[in-house]
What we know:
mainly alpha, elongated, disordered N terminus
Amino acid sequence: xxxxxxxxxxxxxxxxxxxxxxxxxxxxxxxxxxxxxxxxxxxxxxxxxxxxxxxxxxxxxxxxxxxxxxxxxxxxxxxxxxxxxxxxxxxxxxxxxxxxxxxxxxxxxxxxxxxxxxxxxxxxxxxxxxxxxxxxxxxxxxxxxxxxxxxxxxxxxxxxxxxxxxxxxxxxxxxxxxxxxxxxxxxxxxxxxxxxxxxxxxxxxxxxxxxxxxxxxxxxxxxxxxxxxxxxxxxxxxxxxx
Length: 242
């Protein structure tokens, strides 16, 4: 059986792979892009053919595409809650566009959610409940045990800034396009940009986290929690008082 020292050099690679598996959101980002592609393409086609209510037809196309993605993912065993949340997001975006009659408002929900996400991740770091630690800890069955490891706490705080940054970059790109009412550019940026940012954040999260861990740290799967002192012997007051 190998000793802890022999397993040490392998730990970083194993932990890095574990982090990628836990945070790997590329498939989800691609799934979320399909309704966007449907919306933009149907909107362009309906406008070119001068169909009645291009925004309404595009919204229906986006919901139909979202429903198809949801059905496919459910058949592949993806958790129903995650699938339904994704479909709900598409439906809300479609309803907003229908209500305002503006095609660019299909992207408004996403822009607002990116702003809210950036704030939520930043606040979680400030209050020492970094969201990355919550997500990884829950996925690994650690609950909040990682918070008692000062090195992991510091690492999750550093790595969470990566996710704050990617939401800020999204907002910086999408808001000017939204204000300019460039529907095709919004869709293209959403499809090409968001999955790339998610993948980059997943890749950069590990070195940011690892930079806070000492060389002998056992890794994210094994929080190094200080042992609580054993309770001392009780003193009988009656015996000391005579």
